[in-house]
Amino acid sequence: MKLTPQRKAVFDVILASRDHPTAADIMEHLRNSGQRVSYATVYNSLKYLTNAQLIRELKIGESASRYDARMEAHHHIVCEKCGRVDELLTPLPNEYWQAVTKDTGYDVHDIDIVARGLCPDCRRQP
Amino acid sequence: MKLTPQRKAVFDVILASRDHPTAADIMEHLRNSGQRVSYATVYNSLKYLTNAQLIRELKIGESASRYDARMEAHHHIVCEKCGRVDELLTPLPNEYWQAVTKDTGYDVHDIDIVARGLCPDCRRQP
DNA sequence: GTCATAATCAGACTTATTCTAAATGACGAA
DNA sequence: TTCGTCATTTAGAATAAGTCTGATTATGAC
Description:
Two copies of one chain form a homodimer.
Chain A: H1 5-16, H2 23-32, H3 39-51, E1 56-58, E2 66-68, E3 75-79, E4 85-88, H4 94-104, E5 107-118, H5 120-124
Parallel strand pairs in A: 3-5
Antiparallel strand pairs in A: 1-2, 3-4
Helix pairs in contact in A: 1-3, 2-3
Chain A binds a DNA duplex (30 and 30 nucleotides) through residues 1-2, 4, 6-7, 22-24, 36-41, 43-44, 63-65.
């Protein structure tokens, strides 16, 4: 009694979407495809899926969190013009981790990167 | 008619605080020091100061934005236990910028890093 | 089938932030 | 000075994202 139909439905929406949908996007998608879900369930599902490591939550400085079903280590890049969020697969060099540990004295668990700029499409149209 | 007394007061609070205060922290600080300000003014001031490049806004995945009066290029590291936010001065190597540009096709304007881990104080007390 | 527990639901609530409309203040022109 | 204009401040209403509540509805174990 874990991956309920609602949770699976939420997961499927995230998997299918190539963008990184927000809770509201997911709600809209589910409603449009004729499923009746409550907001509480969507958020519950997102939390469950995050704990289950099936998705991850992205907080990239917008008001609403986005969700990503790609679980391999990666970062994100946001277009400042059209708002689209792409995967950023460029890995951070190991020396950077080491330098952070050394410079801050922290036990570093995780380093998150959000780049910003103009996406290829928006570069073309000024 | 620009850097009004209220805006200066907000700026001074951020300058004086070694932590990175939220709007609510700033409000509290001002009220405690006997100044009557409205929330709208605090937010207006924060926006003005940000535009004037006197402070910057930090969105590090918490619900509330924090504000930082240190303007030189730098990043942040958050303690997962006590929540404190420290400066992360370790610069990102130039090759990383180049690699991001190459890998994504974006015109990269800015790369933001938020590291997470255990601060030196919290490492000591398990 | 019965029971305990977990998940769902609608809607109320909270928190951070923005908006609104009225009041205040600063400055330049007459 | 007095006026008019326009930016700023204010209190409180409005919004947006997310969480909580209490009642209802599955689900699986027995």
